[in-house]
């Protein structure tokens, strides 16, 4: 069993109340999460464990001896938890930037997860992609040039392609693995890359924009991952 899998099992046993001789009333804090808290105390503890026990939980929490909340997986929404039943793991690997996971859920179809945080599901991705795309594009008359920051799954590109006034679409995604995984497991979304108006740039969007003339784009859509760890980088 790999190190990540062992870490996930440790977290799961403790969260299930099995880490203290079955006493669920006093839940200890997994050592991996203690290490995470020590390296980034302002973020509490952050631990991206693997899927265990047939479930994936995006957000879990517990308390240390001082009664201070400790967050596992996702510190962005304390007090909330959402779990999906996992039918099978379709893909799991680490890129140069993050852990990329795809699994088949029992009720939401395929799910894309980056560093332990759900990015999209087949069932409800449209609610996000449509809102983040059509609101800005419909807020100005006849947009012609569009930049997408992030958006490696291609869903935003697919929605932009519905606008006939758009003549050119640049997309800057830092992680090529996200693009390739999306093309394999989410082909309906990744079809957005096939639009002839799309020009793909793989790299840091900050550096990309430094070399772009001011006013080049009518619309810029930021579809990047949530900046949870900016302070610790």
UniProtKB/TrEMBL annotation:
Q: Name one GO cellular component term.
A: cytosol
Q: Does the keyword Transferase apply?
A: yes
Q: Which Gene3D superfamilies match?
A: Spermidine synthase, tetramerisation domain (2.30.140.10), Vaccinia Virus protein VP39 (3.40.50.150)
Cleavable signal peptide: none
Q: Which GO terms describe its molecular function?
A: spermidine synthase activity
Keywords, sorted A to Z? Polyamine biosynthesis, Transferase
Report whether Transferase shows up as a keyword of the record: yes
Name the residues annotated as catalytic in the UniProt entry: 223
Specify the PABS domain's residue ranges: 53-233
GO biological process terms, semicolon-separated: spermidine biosynthetic process
One Pfam entry for this protein is Spermine_synth
HAMAP family given in the database record: Spermidine_synth
**Similarity comment text for this entry:** Belongs to the spermidine/spermine synthase family.
UniProt-recorded name of the protein: PABS domain-containing protein
């Amino acid at each position: 069993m790999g190190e990540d899998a062992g870490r996930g099992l440790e977290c799961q046993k403790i969260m299930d109340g099995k880490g203290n001789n079955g006493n669920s009333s006093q839940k200890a804090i997994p050592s991996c999460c203690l290490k995470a808290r020590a390296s980034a105390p302002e973020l509490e503890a952050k631990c991206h464990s693997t899927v265990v026990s047939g479930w994936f939980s995006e957000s879990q929490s517990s308390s240390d001896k001082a009664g201070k909340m400790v967050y596992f997986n996702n510190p962005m929404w304390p007090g909330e938890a959402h779990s999906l039943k996992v039918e099978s793991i379709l893909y799991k690997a680490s890129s140069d930037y993050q852990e990329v996971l795809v699994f088949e859920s029992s009720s939401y179809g395929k799910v894309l997860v980056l560093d332990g945080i759900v990015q999209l599901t087949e069932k409800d991705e449209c609610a996000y992609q449509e809102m983040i795309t059509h609101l800005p594009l419909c807020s100005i008359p006849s947009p012609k040039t569009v930049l997408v920051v992030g958006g490696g799954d291609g869903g935003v590109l697919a929605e932009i392609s519905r606008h006939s006034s758009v003549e050119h679409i640049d997309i800057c995604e830092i992680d090529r693995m996200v693009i390739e995984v999306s093309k394999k497991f989410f082909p309906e979304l990744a079809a957005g890359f096939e639009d002839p108006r799309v020009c793909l740039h793989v790299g840091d969007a900050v550096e990309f924009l430094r070399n772009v003339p001011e006013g080049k784009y009518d619309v810029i859509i930021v579809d990047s991952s949530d900046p949870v760890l900016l302070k610790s980088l």
